[in-house]
């Protein structure tokens, strides 16, 4: 069985088409073309704005023209992560999907159900004539994953008088999201002097791989290891015993994903190399014990490599390792308002050596309290600035405060109870959604977010629960019907 054979056929068929369209963040040209062609093929009115967002409209079922207008909203881009050794070009290759029992997965890469299934649901509503509804707008935004750029720069008139917005970008069946954290990125750039690599040293490559990784918001509190932190922890302790040279250091990939892999090349004397190997074996035993419940597939290896041409100057190497070691990572505080919700966190996302003798460390911070979002970003700034890095912050985005009095929320809760015999859990999430940005321009619009169960998003283990997609579709249809009928 393939994805397009699954039921409901309409939504899975569209999702299957979407997985064949490359759509990395900031490179959404092909998926935008797909959406425009979709609208033209099916006679759907559409418009675009300067930033690349696409909006489509569908008139009400005859007799329901006066019902409140509803926006269905999702984002075009996907997080592009792959396992080491997997040959996949995210700018050109389709996602290789397969059905695994009750789950849809991808072979060695992210699946892109975040938020491909949201796009598919919106398009399915535009095509379906099987239920009654009021006027509908479908808005598909660009670059949600790396800056919420589409929502930040939404063109004038892209949303036309809608009262309600259904964000289709949540990941847990049986839950309705009513709030989210705000976020900001902090990047730290070191400049280094390349020094001729001493030929008399023995060079070793340390690799950390096969960690679970995951979403830097929703998975930050489940005890997963950060490959960058594991690497610099070992290097920092190594520096207390040995005078090694650091030639390269790289780890992680995307600011909104927990680092799954990291590596470094170091140079040590022939006399010290066996001691380094012994120390690494002890370290492996320690971290395997520490993460025995969450990182069972973790691999930490060391192998001899040829001498590089240059190494990083000693002062900068020490500054990079030390600052990354002491930089905070993970949960900073838990919410005192909603039990079990992470309030504030930070992610040591990646370290990359650039071509111009620079080392870039990328981090991201989240909080449901705006002042604490900036506080943790400033703490990260203080750590790296003290080490000599040039630190900059992104524009960030606001959180979305829950509105427990929302009529839309009441409709959604009632719809869920009528369909499934129980009320959904209503909660906020420690992740970024575009709703907070829409509220800046449309402060009176009521919003909720929901979706099918997804697991391990932002990692190559990403999976979508097939039965939950059917429930997601049924709930979406029921909500639209109840709004149209004034229930």
Topology summary:
Blueprint: H1 9-19, H2 29-41, E1 45-48, E2 54-58, E3 70-75, E4 97-100, E5 103-106, H3 113-127, E6 136-141, H4 149-152, E7 164-167, E8 175-180, E9 182-191, E10 194-196, E11 202-209, H5 227-239, E12 245-251, E13 262-268, H6 270-290, E14 299-305, E15 310-312, H7 314-326, E16 330-334, E17 342-353, E18 358-367, H8 370-386, E19 390-393, H9 407-420, E20 425-429, H10 435-441, E21 446-449, E22 454-455, E23 463-465, H11 466-485
Parallel strand pairs: 3-6, 3-7, 7-21, 8-20
Antiparallel strand pairs: 1-2, 2-6, 4-5, 5-23, 9-18, 9-19, 10-15, 11-13, 11-14, 12-13, 16-17, 17-18, 22-23
Walkthrough of the structure:
The longest helix has 21 residues, at 270-290. The chain has helices at residues 9-19, 29-41, 113-127, 149-152, 227-239, 270-290, 314-326, 370-386, 407-420, 435-441, 466-485; strands spanning 45-48, 54-58, 70-75, 97-100, 103-106, 136-141, 164-167, 175-180, 182-191, 194-196, 202-209, 245-251, 262-268, 299-305, 310-312, 330-334, 342-353, 358-367, 390-393, 425-429, 446-449, 454-455, 463-465. Helix 1 (9-19) packs across helix 3. With 487 residues, the protein is α+β, with helices and mostly antiparallel strands. It folds into 2 domains: 3-180 and 399-485, 3-Layer(aba) Sandwich (Aminopeptidase); 184-393, Alpha-Beta Plaits, CATH 3.30.70. The strands form 6 sheets. The protein has a 6-stranded mixed β-sheet. Strands 16-17-18-9-19 form a 5-stranded antiparallel β-sheet, with helices on one face. The model has no long low-confidence stretch (mean pLDDT 96). Helix content is 30%, strand content 26%. The protein is elongated.
């Amino acid at each position: 069985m393939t994805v397009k054979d699954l039921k409901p056929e309409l939504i899975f068929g569209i999702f299957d088409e979407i997985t064949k369209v490359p759509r990395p963040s900031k490179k959404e040209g092909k998926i935008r073309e797909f959406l425009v062609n979709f609208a033209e093929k099916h006679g759907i009115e559409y418009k675009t704005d300067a930033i690349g967002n696409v909006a489509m409209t569908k008139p009400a079922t005859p007799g329901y023209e006066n019902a409140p207008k509803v926006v269905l909203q999702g984002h075009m881009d996907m997080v592009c992560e792959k396992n080491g050794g997997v040959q996949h070009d995210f700018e050109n290759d389709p996602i290789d999907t397969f059905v695994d029992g009750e789950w849809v997965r991808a072979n060695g890469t992210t699946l892109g159900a975040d938020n491909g299934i949201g796009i598919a649901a919106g398009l399915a509503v535009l095509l379906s004539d099987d239920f009654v509804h009021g006027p509908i707008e479908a808005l598909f935004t660009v670059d949600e994953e790396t800056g919420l750029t589409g929502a930040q720069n939404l063109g004038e008139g892209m949303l036309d008088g809608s009262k309600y917005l259904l964000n289709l970008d949540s990941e847990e069946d049986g839950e309705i999201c009513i709030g989210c954290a705000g976020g900001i990125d902090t990047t730290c750039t070191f400049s280094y002097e390349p020094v001729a690599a001493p030929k008399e040293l023995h060079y070793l490559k340390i690799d950390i791989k096969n960690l679970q990784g995951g979403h830097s918001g929703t998975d930050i509190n489940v005890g997963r290891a950060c490959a960058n932190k594991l690497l610099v922890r070992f290097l920092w302790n190594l520096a207390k015993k040995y005078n090694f040279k650091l030639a390269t250091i790289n780890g992680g990939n995307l600011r909104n994903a927990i680092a799954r892999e990291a590596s470094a090349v170091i140079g040590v004397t022939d006399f010290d190399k066996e001691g380094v190997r012994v120390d690494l074996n002890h370290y492996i035993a320690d971290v395997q014990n520490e993460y025995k419940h969450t990182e069972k597939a973790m691999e930490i290896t060391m192998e001899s490599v040829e001498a590089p041409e240059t190494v990083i100057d000693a002062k900068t190497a020490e500054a990079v390792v030390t600052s990354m070691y002491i930089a905070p990572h993970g949960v900073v505080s838990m919410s005192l308002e909603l039990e079990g919700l992470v309030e504030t966190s930070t992610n040591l996302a990646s370290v990359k050596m650039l071509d111009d003798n620079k080392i870039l460390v990328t981090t991201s911070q989240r909080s449901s309290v705006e002042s604490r979002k900036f506080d943790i970003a400033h703490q990260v700034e203080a750590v790296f600035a003290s080490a000599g890095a040039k630190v900059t912050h992104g524009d960030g985005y606001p959180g979305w405060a829950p509105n427990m009095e929302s009529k839309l929320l009441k409709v959604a809760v009632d719809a869920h109870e009528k369909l499934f015999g129980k009320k959904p859990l209503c909660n906020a999430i420690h992740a970024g959604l575009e709703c907070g940005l829409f509220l800046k321009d449309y402060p009176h619009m009521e919003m909720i977010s929901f979706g099918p169960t997804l697991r391990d998003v932002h990692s190559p283990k990403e999976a979508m629960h097939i039965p939950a997609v059917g429930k997601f579709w049924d709930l979406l249809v029921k909500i639209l019907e109840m709004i149209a009928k004034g229930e």
